[in-house]
Design a protein that fits this description.
- By secondary structure, this protein is an all-alpha fold.
- The protein has 4 helices and no strands.
- The radius of gyration is 15 Å and the shape is globular.
- Helix content is 48%, strand content 0%.
Length: 93
């Protein structure tokens, strides 16, 4: 079963933006998310496969409505809860 991230051969998503941004991040929080990902992965809280699965398991509407690093952040939150690092709903506020 294909997940929302697997759009190979699908139509209707518009042109792919191939412009090369001069900066790797559009906002400071995006860099912090990458740092958080690297720190948690290095500590063994989750691995890359679990992280990828958390992103690919997002509901389709949520996946399409979020930016690249918003997906990263949401996946990190899901994994922190799944692993018991934070309690259920602790980040809801």
């Amino acid at each position: 079963m294909a997940r929302i991230n697997d759009v190979g051969g699908m139509q209707g998503f518009g042109a792919v933006d191939i412009a090369d941004d001069a900066e790797p991040f559009r906002a400071d929080w995006e860099a912090r998310v990458v740092g958080l990902f690297n720190a948690l992965r290095a500590q063994g809280v989750f691995n890359t496969d679990e992280f990828r699965d958390a992103i690919e398991s997002m509901p389709p509407a949520e996946y399409l409505a979020t930016s690249y690093y918003e997906r990263w952040f949401r996946a990190i939150c899901v994994l922190l809860e799944r692993k018991g690092v934070i309690g259920p709903g602790e980040l809801d506020d």
